[in-house]
């Protein structure tokens, strides 16, 4: 990717319910990424209802194939998960398992991509544990977690009916995550351009 071009930032996560707190958090982060000049795509809500990932089968539903194609094309990714029993949800984990389809690509998994992470929980302990789990997964997929990961306590009302973030601290975290993913994608592209010019 030429760093002068518009990077594609993919947001993945949430719950099967459209408009969940995690989906709204992702939307705020992606809006900040768009304000930095990125193209953004969000996969959330019913679009996450994918078949359980089966590495032994090449058959993919249309939604699963679209997700894999976006994994392949994106220049950065933001992952958001609700905290279920101290970790990420099975739904989000299953969506991430589809990254295994990139194991033989020139860019394996999320190799070299900036990965923004958002954990939403009805309490701080579960949010912190879930963020740590997401970071471990990002590392396993060869991604580079952004310096700031967002932890949101949904025990209080964080979003209005239009999806606007009401809490200043939460909004700061989400917008910073979105900006950092775009900034990382541009730094990486600039380094690649420099390496090509030297060679």
What's the N-to-C terminus distance?
17 Å
SS field, number of helical segments: 5
- Major β-sheet annotation: 7 strands, mixed
Mean pLDDT: 94
Percentage of β-strand residues: 15-25%
Q: What structural class results from the helix and strand content?
A: alpha/beta
Q: Percent of residues in helical segments?
A: 40-55%
Quaternary structure of the protein? single chain
Describe the overall structure.
The chain has helices spanning 21-35, 62-73, 90-97, 124-140, 168-198, and strands at residues 8-13, 39-43, 76-84, 87-88, 114-121, 144-145, 150-153. It contains five helices and seven strands, in the order E-H-E-H-E-E-H-E-H-E-E-H. It is globular, with a radius of gyration of 16 Å. 42% of the residues lie in helices and 18% in strands. Helix 1 (21-35) crosses helix 5.
Notable features of this structure?
7 strands, globular, 199 residues, 18% strand, 7-stranded mixed sheet, single chain, 5 helices, alpha/beta
Q: What is this structure, in a nutshell?
A:
With 199 residues, the protein is of the alpha/beta class. The protein has helices spanning 21-35, 62-73, 90-97, 124-140, 168-198; strands spanning 8-13, 39-43, 76-84, 87-88, 114-121, 144-145, 150-153.
Outline the secondary-structure elements.
Blueprint: E1 8-13, H1 21-35, E2 39-43, H2 62-73, E3 76-84, E4 87-88, H3 90-97, E5 114-121, H4 124-140, E6 144-145, E7 150-153, H5 168-198
Parallel strand pairs: 1-2, 1-3, 3-5, 5-6, 5-7
Antiparallel strand pairs: 3-4
């Amino acid at each position: 990717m030429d760093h002068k071009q518009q990077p594609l930032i993919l947001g993945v996560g949430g719950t099967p319910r459209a408009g969940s707190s995690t989906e709204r958090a992702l939307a705020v982060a992606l809006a900040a990424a768009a304000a930095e000049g990125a193209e953004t795509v969000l996969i959330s809500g019913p679009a996450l209802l994918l078949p359980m990932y089966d590495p032994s089968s090449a058959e993919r539903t249309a939604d699963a194939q679209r997700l894999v194609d976006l994994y392949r094309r994106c220049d950065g990714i933001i992952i958001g998960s609700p905290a279920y029993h101290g970790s990420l949800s099975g739904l989000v984990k299953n969506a991430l398992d589809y990254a295994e389809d990139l194991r033989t690509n020139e860019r394996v998994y999320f190799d070299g991509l900036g990965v923004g992470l958002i954990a939403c929980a009805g309490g701080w302990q579960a949010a912190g544990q879930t963020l740590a789990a997401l970071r471990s997964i990002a590392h396993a997929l060869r991604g580079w977690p952004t310096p700031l990961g967002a932890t949101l306590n949904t025990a209080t009302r964080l979003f209005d009916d239009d999806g606007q973030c009401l809490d200043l601290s939460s909004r700061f975290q989400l917008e910073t995550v979105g900006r950092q993913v775009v900034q990382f994608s541009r730094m990486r592209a600039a380094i690649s351009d420099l390496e090509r010019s030297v060679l």
